[in-house]
Known about the structure:
alpha/beta
Amino acid sequence: MKRTLRTPFLIVNPKAYIYGEEALELGMICDRLANEYDIDIIYTAQHTDLRMIKEHTEHLILTAQHMDGIVPGRGMGHILPESIKAAGAEAVVLNHAEHPLTMSSLDAAMRRAQELDLLTIVCSDTPAQAKAIASLHPDVMICEPTGLIGTGRTSNDDYINATNAAIKSVSTEIRIIQAAGVSTGSDVYHVIMQGAHGSGGTSGILNAPSRKGKIIEMLDALVEAKIDLAK
């Protein structure tokens, strides 16, 4: 059964900056906070750390940072979808700017994820790309201008509105993450109020004086945005 993702939600995406015990420590912090705030946290991890993190957490949406659209058999060096599922992943990120895929490769990977009830979290750059990828019906889309990733500069409102509209013109069921350059609770609050369903980041969290403190700041912003949207 595919995991249900509640909104608004947070994504904590360490990429390849941390691994092993450090990734486990951050994952356990996120797990406790997800339970305390009753907010879904998508936590991505290196493939070799997935099983370890799963064994020590209960509340995360544990997510692989990539997989390939292959089936058991040939595929030396590729990431087998069944292997991340067996390790405890409930979702997978695909087509990140640091690991781009062709549309045919993306389609194949998404089909395999669907077969295994893995949530698909697919990245796009421009509004045109967002609309094209939305036609493949991922569960979640991350909209990030490639040039802003890791810069601390957030997407402007024109970009946020254009990509949100492009995706919603295809399907209103797709959940949208706006996270380019997001580094503060104010950034998170702003993109949620602009129509995103989730936000989060990498460097804004990993480079913070207190990673836990930064995640709490972002979760507090999600709570505030949820309350304000309900008014």
